[in-house]
Amino acid sequence: MDIKEFFKKLDKVEKKEEIEELFNKLNIEPKYQKDKKKYPDLKFNINTDEIKELKDKGYITNNNLNVSLSEKNLTTLEKLLYALIWKNGELSRIKPIVSGICGEETSTGKVFNQFGKHLCNNEELIIDQHVLRAYIYYKEGNIIKKIGDKVFNKYSNDYKTWINKRKIFKENKNLMDDYLFAIGKKLKEEN
Question: What is the domain range of residue 11?
Fold first, then answer.
């Protein structure tokens, strides 16, 4: 089965097992699939009160990690996580996540902003570039290699509607995310 046929049949499924069976027929190599050791399911939320507390403590300023955070009295876990973020040069990437948690839109960092929305409310979908690429292929037959903010803005709400309007998709949104991730990653590499 090819990806086009997968999407045609996906629109007709009624059970989770049918989604799984369809995906298995695609025979997508493990290298395209989400590594659950690297990306285990998140079992927590972060609410706006928790963000307010971080702001009150001075850990976050202007929805970003305080650049002088390393001077504060941090726990070992906080130091370790800050050091990892710092080493990867990702300190500024926190801002769209925090903005998403606070329900604020950002003009850039749309994937991270949507992730923040998910962290605050797990009914919100995680939408990454691979998932959106698979959805765009489903809708238009196009493979868009680079999913930037402009493309995200154009398709993300339609994607949310597509997932949420079908009970079977909504009830299995993590499964759908995993499968669309793999399809989108494969499409990007094969393009």
Answer: 3-40+124-190
